[in-house]
Write a structure and sequence with these properties.
Layout: H1 4-14, H2 18-30, H3 33-40, E1 51-54, H4 64-81, H5 85-88, E2 90-94, H6 100-113, E3 118-124, H7 129-137, E4 141-145, E5 154-160, H8 171-181, E6 199-201, H9 203-215, H10 221-225, E7 232-234, H11 241-251, E8 257-258, H12 284-293, E9 297-301, E10 308-313, E11 319-321, H13 324-341, E12 349-354, H14 360-368, E13 371-375, H15 379-391, E14 395-401, E15 405-407, H16 417-433, H17 438-449, E16 451-454, E17 457-460, H18 464-476, E18 490-495, E19 501-505, E20 507-508, E21 511-518, E22 523-526, E23 534-537, E24 554-559, E25 563-569, E26 575-584, H19 589-607, H20 610-613
Parallel strand pairs: 2-3, 2-4, 3-6, 7-8, 7-9, 12-13, 12-14, 18-23
Antiparallel strand pairs: 1-5, 4-5, 9-10, 10-11, 14-15, 16-26, 17-26, 18-19, 20-21, 21-22, 21-24, 24-25, 25-26
Helix pairs in contact: 1-2, 1-3, 4-6, 4-8, 9-11, 11-16, 13-17
């Protein structure tokens, strides 16, 4: 194994960026081996989201050297795996973050060195522009330089495959292996990238095509032009404003009232602690502008404009910030109406959401007859599912996740906050002309499909061993040598082909457990409370339909009181996350709230044992 000194020497031999070289040189001079180990020992991991990390020196961070290495490996892998890859080329775009423009050109340089054509966005673009261009141009792959709504010191390298969707396993493993094989930079200069004959500036044709395709979602342009709706918009110091203005104009909708302090791109995000419109307080400045202008609606994009958020003033003057799932239900209702307008048979309309998102979409599908699928968490899963459904003749209607990501534009197989903005404002304008609010339409949906309330949260658990013990206890019961006889009644499932015995709780919050899915060890069963107390499972019996992975924990439990709970570990933070939703088919808000409160306490007290574990 290389010593710390050898790691530093290797870095300095490879790095040609004066800024990051100076960081490592300073640490060597000060003898700060702990920081050198942190930066250099473990290479940044390429995953299904590509790369995302803090921008500083070192193999574990995002910088010019690691971007070049990633691009060299991706180019080599695409050339090997995609037919005619070099001629079809790569799409490259970037946002406004520090170093994004340089990282994009270094990416282009690596592909040029491999003989690829490069379809380039030299200026700022929203993230949806890249997957749109990959699909429209039939490119071999695409790269968007962005860290979305991460803090200002982060940046990212987001990869799309030839179908226009984010990469999913096993592509990530193949690309990671290729990066390791092509790690040492071949070329560093970006001076000639924009002038290279193999580089095409695709900004004008691709954006023209994108907005023309989005315009198909305009229901009634004449009605839109007559709309009197006023609303406030913020791009959160990101790239969204000019693209939001253009899509709204394409729909014939009235222009937004901007938040002046947040309308221009600013990579330092000076007015928000965390540039994510989903975070508490992030929309406060927009609401203040709305209050001053006597406006009752606020809409927002995150910095790279792939996510969308909205809030509406209520009759009592308070603001209702729509949850990601509420927006998902609203979009589903609108998309269903648009599909029927276009003559799409209900059975050929497809909508998907992630498994931690609301079950309301599934209930709507059962009632209306459209095709519904839930997938693993992340747009890579939803987008690839919808891409497959497109190949099978389905019309892509909607894909969404509860973290305010919406895919409505069937030419963009990823989150698209720009199109979502236009569709939402169009809906709000039509309701406004009837003297109604968006919240009134949400109430219509609850009356028709039942009430759904979410209570999502997390526990901070920096001790991985403690996290393991918590999930092991849920899955197997207290350890045999443990004094923790918690008195929880359990149902046993002996797996004859493995030899272990799963012992899940029979009740949670006093309500019988009816369904369990464990994507860590591989188990799924419905109507558990109607099963015998002990059951021996043969190989393959009760195996989940979704991908099983032992690299992280994820357990879903449903109870007979209408609750659905998913608990999982975070892949990027020391958090134990849970997603709790309660459904009341009779639209009884008080009853749903009581169940949600009971189940929230049960998660903390019965499953996580938060007090005992100091969480």
């Amino acid at each position: 194994m290389e010593s710390t000194q050898q790691l530093a020497e290797r870095w300095l031999a490879e790095d040609q960026d004066p800024a990051t070289r100076a960081q490592i040189e300073d640490l060597v001079r000060r003898g700060d081996n702990a920081k050198l180990e942190e930066l250099l020992r473990t290479p940044i991991e390429f995953g299904t989201a590509g790369l995302r990390a803090r921008m500083e020196a070192g193999y574990s961070r995002l910088n010019q050297l690691t971007v070049i290495s990633a691009s060299q490996g991706l180019a080599a892998y695409a050339e090997r795996e995609v037919a005619d890859a070099r001629e079809r080329g790569v799409v490259v775009g970037h946002d406004h973050r520090h170093n994004s423009a340089t990282f994009a050109r270094l990416t282009a340089r690596a592909f040029l060195d491999r003989g690829f054509r490069v379809h380039f966005f030299p200026g700022l673009v929203p993230t949806p522009a890249v997957p749109f261009a990959v699909k429209r141009l039939h490119a071999a792959c695409g790269v968007m330089i962005t860290a979305s709504h991460n803090p200002k010191d982060d940046n990212g390298y987001k990869v799309y495959w030839e179908n226009g969707a984010q990469i999913k396993p096993p592509l990530d493993e193949g690309i990671a292996a290729s990066i390791a094989e092509h790690r040492v930079p071949r070329s560093w200069s970006v001076d000639s990238v924009d002038a290279d004959a193999r580089v095409a500036d695709v900004t004008a044709p691709m954006l023209d095509a994108y907005f023309e395709a989005a315009r198909r979602l305009a229901l009634d342009e004449e009605q839109n032009r007559a709309a009197k709706l006023r609303y406030v918009y913020t791009p959160m110091h990101g790239v969204g404003a000019p693209f939001a203005a253009r899509v709204l104009a394409a729909f014939g909708l009235p222009a937004f009232v901007p938040v002046p302090q947040q309308i221009e791109p600013d990579p330092d995000f000076p007015t928000v602690a965390f540039p994510n419109p989903e975070e508490r307080g992030a929309l406060d400045m927009a609401k203040a502008v709305a209050d001053a202008e006597e406006i009752g609606l606020v809409v927002a994009n995150d910095p790279d404009a792939d996510r969308f958020a909205a809030a509406e003033k209520q009759a009592d003057g308070s603001w209702l910030a729509f949850t990601g799932d509420q927006l998902g239900a609203l979009f589903a209702g609108v998309v269903l109406d648009m599909a029927r307008r276009d003559g799409v048979p209900d059975a050929k309309l497809a909508m998907v959401n992630s498994t931690v998102s609301s079950r309301m979409l599934g209930v709507m599908a059962a009632a209306e007859g459209f095709h519904y699928v839930d997938t693993l968490t992340g747009f890579k899963w939803m987008a690839n599912e919808l891409a497959d459904l497109q190949q099978r003749g389905y019309t892509v209607g909607l894909g969404y996740e509860e973290a305010i990501g919406y895919m409505i534009h069937d030419h963009v197989l990823d989150k698209d906050g720009i199109t979502a903005l236009a569709v939402f404002v169009q809906m709000a304008a039509a309701l406004h002309s009837q003297g109604r609010r968006v919240g009134d339409y949400l109430e219509d949906l609850y009356a028709k499909y039942g009430y759904f309330v979410s209570a999502n949260a997390y526990f901070v658990c920096p001790d991985p061993q403690k996290t393991e013990r918590i999930f092991s206890r849920i899955r197997f019961g207290p350890a045999a040598d443990s004094q923790d006889d918690d008195g929880v009644e359990r149902i046993e499932f002996a797996r004859s082909h493995i030899g272990d015995v799963l012992r899940y709780p029979r009740t949670v919050g006093g309500s019988p457990v009816s369904y369990i899915r464990d994507l860590t060890v591989g188990f799924e069963m419905r109507d558990i409370d109607q099963s015998p107390r002990a059951l021996t499972l043969a190989k393959g019996q009760c195996w989940p339909t979704l991908l099983v992975s032992g690299s992280s924990h994820m357990i879903t439990i449903e109870t007979r009181n209408g609750a659905r709970l998913t608990m999982r570990t975070s892949g990027t933070e020391p958090k134990l996350k849970y997603y709790l939703e309660v459904q009341d088919s009779n639209n009884d808000r008080a009853a749903a709230a009581r169940v949600a409160d009971t189940m929230t306490r049960a998660v903390a007290d019965e499953l996580v044992q938060a007090a005992k574990n100091g969480l």
